[in-house]
Amino acid sequence: MSAISHRTALRTCPLCEAVCGLELTLDAQDHVVGVRGDRQDPFSRGFLCPKGASLGHLDADPDRLTRPMIRDRADDSWRTASWQEAFDLVAERIPALVQEYGRGAAALYLGNPNAHTVAGALYVPVLMRALSTRNLYSASTADQMPKQVASGLMFGDPLTVPVPDLDRTDLLLMLGANPLESNGSLCTAPDYPGRLKALRKRGGRLVVVDPRRTRTAKIADEHLFIRPGSDAYLLFGIVHTLFAEDLTDIGVPVDGLDEVRSAATDFTPEVVAARTGVPADTVRRLARELAAAPSAAVYARIGTCTAEFGTLTQWLVDVINALTGNLDRPGGAMFATAAALGIERSRPFRLGRWHTRVRELPEAMGEFPIATLAEEIRTPGEGQIRALITVAGNPVLSAPGGPRLGSALAELEFMVSVDRYLNETTRHADVILPPPRTVQSPHYDFALLQFAVHNYARYSRPAVPLGDAVAEAEILARLALAVSGQQTEPSHDPIAAVDELVIAGTLHKAGLLERREELLGENSTEQRIDMMLRLGPYGEWNSAVTPENAAVHEGLNLQVLLDNPHGIDLGPLRPRLPGVLRTASRRVDLAPPQLLEDVHRLRARLADDAPEILLIGRRQLRSNNSWMHNIPTLVGGSNTCTLHIHPDDVARLGLTDRAVVKSAAGTLTVPLEPTDEIMPGVVSLPHGWGHEANETQSVARTHPGVNANTLTDDSLVDVPSGNAVFNGVPVTVGPA
Ligand SMILES: Nc1nc2c(c(=O)[nH]1)N[C@H]1C(S)=C(S)[C@@H](COP(=O)(O)OP(=O)(O)OC[C@H]3O[C@@H](n4cnc5c(=O)[nH]c(N)nc54)[C@H](O)[C@@H]3O)O[C@H]1N2
Ligand SMILES: Nc1nc2c(c(=O)[nH]1)N[C@H]1C(S)=C(S)[C@@H](COP(=O)(O)OP(=O)(O)OC[C@H]3O[C@@H](n4cnc5c(=O)[nH]c(N)nc54)[C@H](O)[C@@H]3O)O[C@H]1N2
Ligand code: SF4
Ligand SMILES: [Mo]
After folding, report:
1. Deepest in the core among 168, 502, 531, 571, taking most CB within 10 A?
2. Ligand 1 centroid from CA 725, angstroms
3. Mean pLDDT value of segment 401-412
4. pLDDT(706) > 90
C-alpha cells in the first residue's frame, strides 16, 4: 500500500461533546487508516483522546450493520432485506396500529448520538411531526433535563443554558463532573484537561466536589467529598451564607431575590454539613471565595443532574452565579452565541402542559420521562404504547430499570430501530435501519455549539461518497413518510422535499423568500445549513450583525466555512443579557414557583435517615455510554465493569473479590475493585455494560460486564424534570 494513494480529510469528531477537529487519513479504498487531532482547528488545536483516535476501528467494525435487517418473530431470526422491503413493512404496520389504537399508540425514543449528527438535528423533527405522538422520549431525561428545566424557568428558554467561561475564570467550583474522563458536557470545550491546567497556571483555582477522588479532582486545588445526592443542600448552604454575610452583588436584572433568601433561611452551613459531609466552615469559605474572586463560575453536571434533586441543584448553581455577580460576565457563567439560527422562542418556557397516562408525570420540552416508558408499554388501557421507533439509542442499557424496559419492548406489537448495531435494545425490533459510516455523513454541531466555552463554527462535508448506503437524513425522511402511510417513489427525493418546506417557511418568515436562489450548497441539506448560518447572529443576512461580529468576518455563510475547513474562531463569549431572556418580565427569575415548591421535598428529606450505602455511576475514558465496547483497542485494562468500593467497606462487610449488590429494583453480582479514591459508604458502577446476551457484537460479548441499570429504579425521578435518578441509589452490599 503506497502512501501516495492516501488522502486526508478534515472532520469534527462526533463521539463526545468536545467537538475536536480531526485530520483523517484515508486509503485508496476509503478506509480510515489514520486519525490525528487537527492542529489548525482554532478551538481544539490538535487535541485528540483515545476514543477519537479509534474512529478508524469503529468505522471498520465488521459487526456494524450495513443492510436493513428484518426479524422473524416466529423463531427470532434475522435476515437482511432491501431498503424498499424494510420501509414497506413500516408503512404497513405503524399506520395500521395508529389507525386501530390512536396517535399515542406509536412512541419515539431518541438516543444520545442524535445530538452529534446533522440527521438528528435537521431530520428527526420531521419524523416527530409525522408521528405527532405525545409519547416522545429521549436520553435527555436520563441526562440533562434538570438543567434545561431550571434554565427554562429562570431564563424563559430551556436552551439558554449558561456555561462556565473556562478560559477566563478565576475560580471554578465543579460538582459531579469528571471532564478528564468525559471530556466535558453541557460545556463544549475541546481539551478540557488542558483548559483546566491553563486555568491553574494563570493563577485560577479549581475546586471539585465529588464522592470520588477522580482524575479531575487530582489536578484540582481542592477536592471535597460529598454524600451522593446531597449537592442541593451544599449549594443552599452557600446561598444561605451569601445572604447571611451580605456577600451578594447582582449585576443582572432579577426577580425573586426575597423568595430565594427566605427559602435558604433554614439551610445553615451546620444543617447542610450534617447531610453532605462537607464541614460548615468549608461551606462558609466557599461562599466567601465565590463572592470575593474577580470572577468565578459554579458548574455542575451528570453526577448532580441524574439525582433525586437534580433540578433544584441546577437552579441553585445559577442562583449562586447570579448572586455573586458572575452570571453573564467574563470569567463567570455565560451564554454562547452559536452561529446557526436556533429555534426562535417567542413565549416563555412552560412545564407540564400534558402528563403521562399512568403516573401522571409532567412533560418537559414536549417529552415524557424515559423512566415512564416501560409502564406506558405495559399498562393496558386507552393510550397504551403498541409500537416504538428508536433512533440512536440503547435504553435497555441506559434507562433506569433497563432490564424491565427490555421485557416491555418484547411485548410491543411492532418496533423499528435506526441504529448501527444489533444490540441489547435493537434485538427487540422488527426492522433495523442502519445509518451510513460516520465519514459518509456531513457534520455540523447544531446542538453542542450552543454550549461552547468559545464561539466557533466548523462544517465538514462527507469525506466518502455514500455508495450503496442510505444517508441517515433519508432514512428519517422516508420513515416519516412510511409512518404516515405514504410510499416513496424511486424518483422522489424525500430529503429535498423536507428541506424545501423548511427553507420556504423560514425565508418567508424572515421576508427573504425572493433570495432562495442565493443559497449555496451541493444539496438541499447544505442549502439549509447555509440559510441557518446566513440568518444566524453572525450571518450575512442577519440585519442585527453587530460591529463586533462584523469584525470577525464579513458576514457568515456556508462558503466561509467551506473556505475554512479547520473551523473559524468567532471570539470569546460575550454578555447576552437581557437579550436572550424569554421570561415574561425579561428579567432572570431567581425564584420560579415550581422550584420553590420542590424545596419542600428537599427540606422534608433532611429528617430522613441516610441509607448506609449509596450507589453512584462513573464514566471511563475509553468508553462511550453503551456502544463502543466492540472496539478491541478500547476495552480491557481500566475499561472494565467493576464496583469501586472503599477498602474499609470491603473489610467491614466481609467481602472478597465479588459482591452481591441489591437495591429496591434489582440484584447484581459484580467484581470488586477496592480503592480509597471513593468515600466509605459509597460504591460506583459504570453504566453501558451488560452485553452477555449480545450475540452479534463479538468483542463486546467477551467483555460483557453487568447492566448497572438493573439496580436503578424507574419509580424514582427528580420531580420537576422527571429525570432519572442514577446517583445516590440506596443499596446493600454483601458477600457473593
Ligand atoms: N469517555 C467517556 N466520555 C463521555 C461519555 C462516556 O460514556 N465516556 N459519555 C458522554 C455523556 S452522554 C455525558 S452526559 C457526559 C457526562 O460528563 P460528566 O458529567 O463529566 O460525567 P462523569 O464523568 O460521569 O462524571 C460525573 C461525576 O459525578 C460524580 N458523582 C456521582 N454522584 C454524585 C453526587 O451525588 N454529587 C456529586 N457532586 N458528584 C457525584 C461521579 O463520581 C463522577 O465523577 O460525558 C460524555 N463523555
Ligand atoms: N446508570 C446510568 N445510566 C445512564 C447514565 C449514567 O451516568 N448512569 N448516563 C445517561 C446518559 S448521560 C446518557 S446520554 C444516556 C445514553 O443513552 P442512549 O442514547 O440510549 O445510549 P447509548 O449507549 O448512547 O446508545 C447509542 C446508540 O446509538 C447507536 N449509534 C451510534 N452512532 C449512531 C449514529 O450515528 N446514528 C444512529 N442512528 N445510531 C447510532 C449505537 O449503536 C447505540 O445503539 O445513558 C444514560 N444512562
Ligand atoms: S475528546 Fe471527544 S470529540 Fe475529542 S477526540 Fe475524544 S471523543 Fe472525539
Ligand atoms: Mo449524556
Report:
1. 531
2. 13
3. 98
4. yes
Tell me how far the alpha carbon of residue 301 lies from the centroid of ligand 3, in angstroms. 18
pLDDT of residue 490: 61
Q: Per this entry, what is the length of the chain? A: 736
Q: What is the pLDDT of residues 679-700, one digit of tens each?
A: 999 999 999 999 998 888 899 9
What is the C-alpha separation between 106 and 192, in angstroms, rounded?
40
Phi/psi for 483 (5° steps) reads -70, -20
pTM of this prediction?
0.97
CA-nearest residue, atom 2 of ligand 3: 16
- Residue 423 near ligand 2, beta carbon < 6 Å: yes
CATH 2.40.40.20 spans which residues of the chain? 611-735
Pocket of ligand 3 (CB under 6 A): 13, 15-16, 18-20, 48-49, 51-52, 183, 190
- Ramachandran angles phi, psi of 532, nearest 5°: -65, -35
How far does the centroid of ligand 2 lie from the alpha carbon of residue 688, in Å? 8
The β-bridge relationship of strands 136-138 and 69-72 is unpaired
Report the top-level CATH class of 158-335+580-601: alpha beta
Cβ contact 482:389 at 8 Å: no
* DSSP string for residues in 680-712: TTEEE--SS---TT-SS-HHHHHS----GGGTS
In the block, cell 455523513 appears at 441
Nearest to 83 by CA among 106, 59, 58, 65: 65
User: What is the per-residue pLDDT across 254-265, written as a single tens digit (0 to 9) for each?
Assistant: 999 999 999 999
For residue 125, give the amino acid letter. Answer: P
Is pLDDT at 1 greater than 60 in this prediction? no
pLDDT tens-digit map of 483-523? 998 876 666 789 999 999 999 999 999 999 999 999 999 99
Atom of ligand 3 nearest to the CA of 12: 3
Instruction: Return the pLDDT at 695.
Output: 83
> Measuring from atom 8 of ligand 3, which residue has the nearest CA?
52
Which residues of the chain does CATH 3.40.228.10 include?
A: 158-335+580-601
Listed in sequence order, the residues at least 6 apart from 702 whose beta carbon sits closer than 8 Å to its beta carbon are: none
Helices (H), 472-584: 472-483, 494-510, 524-535, 547-552, 558-563
What CATH number was assigned to the domain covering residues 611-735? 2.40.40.20
Any ligand 2 atom below 6 A from CB of 390: no
pLDDT for res 553: 61
In the predicted model, what is the mean pLDDT of residues 137-162? 98
**C-beta of 146 in contact with ligand 2 (< 6 A):** no
Q: How many A from CA of 692 to the centre of ligand 3?
A: 28
Check whether 633 has a pLDDT greater than 80: yes
The residue whose grid cell reads 438493573 is: 710
Q: How far is the CA of 180 from the centre of ligand 1 (A)?
A: 10
